[in-house]
Recover the amino acids of this structure.
C-alpha cells in the first residue's frame, strides 16, 4: 500500500519550530503573516515519500542501487502531453508518487525559442556541478525526469502550486519532478527557478530562507537564482528547522557532495574588430564575441597587458581609452564561462605610425616602447618614475626590486629592441618583460650569463624572480 503525506509549505501552519540559528540576510520581502499576504507567484513544493516503501531496484530493468545518476532529462511533454501513472517513482516507466490517478500533463504552452531559453537557464544553474542536462529521453540507465509543462490540476494539485517533487532525506532514484510551466506566462526565470528547486528536492534539499537561492520562496532577490555557498536557515516565509535535521542548509555544498564538480570547457573568444595589423584612430572601438555552451559570465579588456575594463554582460564592446596613444598596441580580451573558466584572444594594431625612437612620438614627454608611444620620464607617473603602488603609474604597474626601489614600468617583448635608452628589458614571466632602469641603450635584450637575478614585485601580481636581460 502506498503511504505518502504532503507538505505544502505555503498553505500549512504549525509544521516545524522556528530555527534558533542566525538567519541569512536575504529575506527582505518576508511578510509578517504569509497566510494574510498571499504569495505573488505560484510556489513550488514537495511531497514526502515514505522511506520504508519497497525499493524499486530491479524494476523496469534498471537498478536503483547502481549509484546516483547525474542525468536530468527535461521533458516539455510536446506535442501530445505526458501520460503519468500513480505508484512508486520510476522515470523510465512514467510512474510517479505525486498523482492519485492516471494523469496527462499538458504540453509546454510556449514557443520553442522560450523552451531553449529555459533549457539554457537550467544548464547555467547547474553548470558548477557534475550534472548533465538533456532534452532527449535517455535510451538506457537511470535518470531524473523533470516535467516542465502543464498546470497543477493535471496531477490533482491545487491552484497556486508552481511545482512539486517527491522528497525524502536523500537521493530518490529515477524520480519525476513537476514544474508547472504553463502557470508562469512564459517567464523564463520563474520557470527555471522552479525547475531548479523541484529537481533539487528529489535529492533531499529543503526550502531555504534565502532570496538568492533557487530553494527559496522569497521574491526580493535576483530573478535568476544560484545555489548559495552559505549555510542558512531552512524555511518558506519564516526561518525554521530543516526537515531532515539541523537548523541550516548549504545548498551548494549539498549538491556538490551528491554530484561532484563539473569539468567545464572554456568559452570561445574572438575579437571581431579591430583585426591584427589594422591602423586605427584614437579611441577606436573594440568588439569581441564570447561564446560558451552554458553561458559567458564576463569579459576583460587588456591593452598592452594592462586591465582596462571588465564587462559582466554582453554586448562585449569597448572604446579604447584616449590615453592609448600613437604606436603599436596589443589588444587582449579574456572571456569567462559561469564557472570561471577563462579563454582569450589578442590582436596587434597600430595607432598612426609605429614609433622607432622617442622622436617619432607626437608628445615631447612620450618615449617609445616596442613601437608604441607611452608616457616617459618627463611625465609624472611615466616610465621610470619612482613609485610605491600601481596607482601612481600611468601604466598601472609599479615594480619593486629586492632593495625597496620602486619604478613605473611598461611591458616589453624581450625578443624586440623595445626599451628606450637607460632601460633594460627584464623578463617578468615566460612570455614577456618590463622596461627597468639599468644600463640599456634603447636596444633589445639578451640574457647575460654574468648578470644576477633581480627580485621584482609587481604590486597586485605577486613576487616574481626576474632575470636581468641587457644588450651585449
Amino acid at each position: 500500500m502506498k503511504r505518502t503525506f504532503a507538505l505544502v509549505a505555503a498553505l500549512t501552519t504549525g509544521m516545524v519550530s522556528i530555527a534558533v540559528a542566525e538567519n541569512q540576510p536575504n529575506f527582505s520581502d518576508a511578510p509578517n503573516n504569509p497566510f494574510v499576504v498571499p504569495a505573488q507567484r505560484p510556489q513550488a513544493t514537495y511531497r514526502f515519500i515514505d522511506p520504508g516503501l519497497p525499493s524499486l531496484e530491479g524494476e523496469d530493468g534498471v537498478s536503483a542501487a547502481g549509484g546516483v545518476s547525474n542525468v536530468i532529462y527535461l521533458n516539455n511533454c510536446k506535442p501530445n502531453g505526458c501520460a503519468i501513472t500513480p505508484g512508486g517513482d520510476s522515470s523510465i516507466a512514467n510512474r510517479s508518487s505525486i498523482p492519485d490517478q492516471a494523469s496527462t500533463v499538458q504540453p509546454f504552452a510556449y514557443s520553442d525559442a522560450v523552451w531553449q531559453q529555459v533549457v539554457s537557464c537550467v544548464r547555467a544553474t547547474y553548470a558548477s556541478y557534475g550534472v548533465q542536462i538533456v532534452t532527449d529521453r535517455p535510451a538506457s540507465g537511470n535518470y531524473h525526469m523533470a516535467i516542465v509543462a502543464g498546470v497543477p490540476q493535471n496531477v490533482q494539485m491545487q491552484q497556486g502550486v508552481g511545482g512539486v517533487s517527491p522528497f525524502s532525506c536523500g537521493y530518490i532514484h529515477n524520480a519525476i519532478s513537476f514544474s508547472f510551466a504553463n502557470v508562469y506566462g512564459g517567464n523564463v526565470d520563474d520557470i527555471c527557478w522552479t525547475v531548479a528547486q523541484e529537481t533539487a528536492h528529489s535529492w533531499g534539499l529543503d526550502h531555504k530562507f534565502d532570496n538568492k537561492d533557487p530553494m527559496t520562496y522569497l521574491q526580493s532577490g535576483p530573478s535568476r537564482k544560484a545555489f548559495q555557498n552559505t549555510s542558512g536557515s531552512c524555511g518558506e516565509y519564516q526561518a525554521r528547522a530543516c526537515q531532515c535535521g539541523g537548523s541550516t542548509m548549504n545548498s551548494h555544498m549539498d549538491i556538490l557532495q551528491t554530484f561532484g564538480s563539473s569539468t567545464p570547457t572554456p568559452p570561445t573568444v574572438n575579437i571581431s574588430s579591430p583585426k591584427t595589423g589594422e591602423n586605427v584612430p584614437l579611441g577606436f572601438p573594440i568588439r569581441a564575441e564570447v561564446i560558451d555552451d552554458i553561458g559567458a559570465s564576463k569579459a576583460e579588456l587588456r591593452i598592452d597587458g594592462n586591465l582596462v575594463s571588465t564587462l559582466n554582460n554582453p554586448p562585449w564592446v569597448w572604446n579604447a581609452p584616449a590615453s592609448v596613444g600613437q604606436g603599436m598596441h596589443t589588444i587582449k580580451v579574456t572571456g569567462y564561462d559561469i564557472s570561471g573558466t577563462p579563454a582569450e584572444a589578442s590582436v596587434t594594431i597600430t595607432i598612426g605610425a609605429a614609433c622607432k625612437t622617442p622622436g617619432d612620438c607626437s608628445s615631447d614627454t612620450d618615449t617609445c616602447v616596442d613601437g608604441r608611444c607611452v608616457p616617459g620620464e618627463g611625465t609624472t607617473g611615466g616610465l621610470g618614475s619612482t613609485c610605491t603602488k600601481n596607482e601612481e603609474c600611468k601604466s598601472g604597474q609599479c615594480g619593486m626590486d629586492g632593495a625597496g626601489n620602486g619604478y613605473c614600468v611598461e611591458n616589453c617583448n624581450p625578443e624586440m629592441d623595445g626599451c628606450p635608452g637607460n632601460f633594460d628589458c627584464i623578463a617578468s614571466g615566460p612570455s614577456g618583460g618590463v622596461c627597468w632602469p639599468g644600463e640599456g641603450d634603447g636596444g633589445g635584450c639578451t640574457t647575460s650569463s654574468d648578470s644576477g637575478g633581480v627580485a621584482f614585485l609587481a604590486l597586485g601580481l605577486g613576487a616574481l624572480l626576474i632575470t636581468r636581460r641587457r644588450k651585449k
Remarks:
- DSSP finds three helices and 32 strands in the chain.
- The first strand starts at residue 4 and ends at 7.
